[in-house]
């Protein structure tokens, strides 16, 4: 397995959940991490705790300019960028007619455009370097659909399709594109939008740290191999 010491990784949606857990796990592996999210106070608290290996970028993933600032921060602070973890995303439980126009628009913009813009910002750096990693955190809903999550599932199918196309487009440049498709994960996901802290089943879900371990694992693969899609679920989750 590759040593990540000194590698530079940008992580979107890093203020909570899988993004925060991934940033912490990468720092523990010796990587330098650029964390991006809207909630700068949370990012600052993480940087204060973890030290000089963390650079903070307050950003909105739906903004192409902010995505470029994320990559620029990596280059300015650490002199390079080796990997991007495109993790930012939102979701809500509800049928196609149950959610508001605003909820659906935000979900589509954040999950799809918010994946595309950071990747577009990072790809030129990876091409120049002749190597790089793109890890897209999608969902098992993007492989099989999900009841009461149709639009969310559609955004995750879009991420899986994007990753498949990018693998064919970018592999010749030494760029690996991996999709992680976790099942239920006990995070802030959809909290207040169909999920509650006392919701039955949360205790049986994976933790954010479980998924973060998968992020680290795909980045540590030898450069001679790549993982295309990795779907994972907790042992307790039946469906």
Our count of helices gives 7
Low-confidence stretches: none
The average pLDDT is 93
Q: In the residues, how many domains can be counted?
A: 1
Radius of gyration: 17 Å
CATH superfamily: NAD(P)-binding Rossmann-like Domain
Distance between the termini: 32 Å
Annotation, overall tally of beta strands: 7
Helix vs. strand class? alpha/beta
The global form is: globular
Helix content: 40-55%
Which series of helices and strands comes N to C? Answer: EHEHEHEHEHHEHE
Strand content: 15-25%
Question: Mind describing the biggest β-sheet?
Answer: 7 strands, parallel
Predict the CATH topology. Rossmann fold
The strand order across the widest sheet is 3-2-1-4-5-6-7
Question: What features would you describe in this structure?
Answer:
- The protein is α/β, with parallel strands linked by helices and 239 residues long.
- It has one domain: Rossmann fold (3-Layer(aba) Sandwich), CATH 3.40.50.720.
- Helix content is 44%, strand content 16%.
- It has a seven-stranded parallel β-sheet with strand order 3-2-1-4-5-6-7, sandwiched between helices.
- Helix 7 links the parallel strand 6 and strand 7.
- Helix 1 crosses helix 7 and helix 4 packs parallel to helix 6.
- The longest helix is centred in the middle third of the chain and has 29 residues.
- The chain is globular, with a radius of gyration of 17 Å.
- The model has no long low-confidence stretch (mean pLDDT 93).
